[in-house]
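Quick start: what a row looks like.
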Amino acid sequence: MIKVGIIGSTGYAGAELVRILMNHKEAEIVWYGSRSYVDQAYASVYRNMFELVEDKCLDDNIAELAERVDVIFTATPQGYLAGVLTEDILNKVKVVDLSADYRIKDVAIYEKWYGIEHKSPQFIEEAVYGLCEINREDIKGKRLVANPGCYTTCSILTAYPMVEEGMIDANTLIVDAKSGTSGAGRGAKLPNLFCEVNENMKAYGVASHRHTPEIEEQLGYACGEEITINFTPHLVPMNRGILVTEYASLKKKADGTYPTYEEVKAVYDKYYKDETFVRVLPKGECPETKWVEGSNFVDVNFVIDERTGRIIMMGALDNLVKGAAGQAVQNMNLIFGLPENEGLMMVPMFP
């Protein structure tokens, strides 16, 4: 049985980790870390855990935690793990970090986009970017995994086959993304109040959102060169879900024509037909957040616009599951050599 510690267990992603791991056959949570609720019963913070979780919340002493568990999930703000991680901790325990501290390989880019100093850049090179469908073999057995975020997971997986196969000009990629309000976290913030969010949609972080360089870096690896994209997120009045619509110019084939639907579909099937958690939809069906809610699935599809020579790629996932906690558990499974889907075969909830 894998002993698990969670730091940040009372945030939305942390609570989702608890929900998922309670049904994991090979894992046991022994540390519910929460700086805000020390010594309070976990079930008093999340009443859905009444008579399911008897433990009290503990602090975020990662050094002590490393002595007691096999893996630590850090569902914490940016900068926390980078400020406390040491070689001694990594020698004792595996760490899956749900923040962005180790996702970006260039520390200067991280510091520019996140506006904070990175306190442990010596671990950046070692950290594996935990997008399982792309880096599966690199994740196995590793001691530090940088768990991707929700926008980036959906954006990357939706376009990855086209970028990897060189079928689009990656520098023309435009990502239009929509997120439910849980993506902003559980902290009380004026822009997230009901009256501010309800009956409203808005763009934010326009031309400046900090997930932009992460998407650029990972898709840049896929096409073998640095790329520049446009990424615009929007907040929508729902609890969960990410929907991305991505636009890019198709590259013409040797005969001067654009790829056909069948040719593009064959590429998506090549990459995802054996993937448990990526579902390529039938022709004409667009991904919808309601069909992935509460699950670790990503639904993707595309439409070719012959008039403009562009492809419209679409993807949907649950930001708290495949976009955070589910993917983190998927990474844990890979690290410890467990079946990758253990604890994660939740059927999407509807309605």
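That is the whole record. The longest strand covers residues 242-249. The domain at 151-319 is CATH 3.30.360.10 (Dihydrodipicolinate Reductase; domain 2).
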